[in-house]
Amino acid sequence: MPVEIKTTYLIAIAIMLLLVGFIIFVVLLHNKKQLLFLKEKQLKEAAFKNAILEEKLLQQKIIEAERMRISADMHDELGAGISAIKLQAEFIKQNFRDEQLNLELNDLLHITKDMNSAMREMLWSLNTENDTLENLFLYTVNYTESFLKNSSIKASFHKTLDNPETKISATGRRNIFLCIKEGINNVYKHSGAKNIEISFLMKGNLLTIQLADDGIGFGKETVTSGNGLRSMEFRMQTINGKYTIDRLSQGVRILFTIPLS
Amino acid sequence: MSELLYWTYIASLFTCTVCSVVFTIKNGAKQQQFLIVYLALSISADFFLQLKYILGKQEVTNVIWYKIYIISCVNYFTYFYYSILTKRLKVALLSVAIVANSYLFYVADFGSNHFNAQQGVTLAIFYVIVALTWFYHKLQYDLEQRILKDPRFWVSSGLLIWGACFIFRTYPSYYFYANDVSFHNFLKNMMHVVNTMLYGVITIALWQFNTNQNLNNKSS
Fold this sequence. Notes:
The structure holds 2 protein chains of 2 kinds.
Chain A: H1 3-95, H2 99-126, H3 133-147, E1 154-161, H4 170-191, E2 195-203, E3 206-213, H5 227-238, E4 242-247, E5 252-259
Parallel strand pairs in A: 1-2
Antiparallel strand pairs in A: 2-3, 3-5, 4-5
Helix pairs in contact in A: 1-2, 2-4, 3-4, 4-5
Chain B: H1 2-27, H2 35-55, H3 63-82, H4 87-108, H5 117-141, H6 151-170, H7 173-179, H8 181-219
């Protein structure tokens, strides 16, 4: 066989080896490019998630600003209006000595007092600075002390909070507070208790609030149709929480369990 | 030795075809890009090539079938790669396929019982071009899937090696047959090995098509 042909076949073998090398090179190159591509993809996904979070944060800030504006407007407009009605009623009461009129004016003053108190609660729930668990506890203490000021019931408070700065939404805060308020009101109206103990316990993502009194007691099975209890149930459902009422050896214990997100 | 290599090649072709039939029954022919059609064509090409030996009649004409087989292969692999390529590469692939088909018909001479080596070379060059086109496409545009998990990687590697070997096997075939029979036989044996490898990698590609289908079924 001529040398030229043999050389040609040696070249052919070399080309074969080159092709095998080429395939290996392609595999390695593809793997490298794929790694870069996947990293780039992850970065893009992270950037996209960040953009969504920023958007949410912006919306949250807008909502907070709006809440603050409503809060300020309510305080300035409604608060001033209620105070003016109250002053006007007191002025009339001082200047007119009619007994029937005084009775009506006392009712009016009572209504303005309730309205004032309701407005304060609304302002409290609207104010974004109050969106913490610690603040909810302090507000509950203030309210209870003020509410039971003229009664014979003594209130004591306990808290064990993993993180007192845990955020609670305005809706959550308002629903929890109104449940506590209803509970305290029931103790005041029906229990004949001497003491009430309010405890806040936060463990992990679970908040437990306990209201225990030493009154005459009632069981849930005996008091099921009251508006107050239905309202409590509804409010707890709204925030994915639950509540239980237990009869103690002396008194009643109401337990609210709320998951914190 | 030559016989053993030949029957090894035939065995690999049959194994590959059986796998293809099983996966066609299981997942359908489209899922494996109708590789079953290509394998059926390959088996029939070999069958017709062997027919004269089986019948013991040297005058049986079988080259025409081989010519048809080569043209079918060009068109089959155009289909096999066409759907996954980008628009520009599709145009390039179609252009190459049209040129290859035109040339194959031009040199075919279906009336003659003589196999024109240019046909074999055209097919080999076509294989090399489509395989390289696919590699380029994979590196540039498809980085989602791992290359070794892509069935077309195995088919393309097989075609690339086969194409390069076949050029050196087929072009000087008649010359060697006349001048150096032992070297001619050596090349023939080498081609059996390469063919065995080709059907081996096509079997891997079939498995990969099946694995990908199973993963798709799971994720959906």
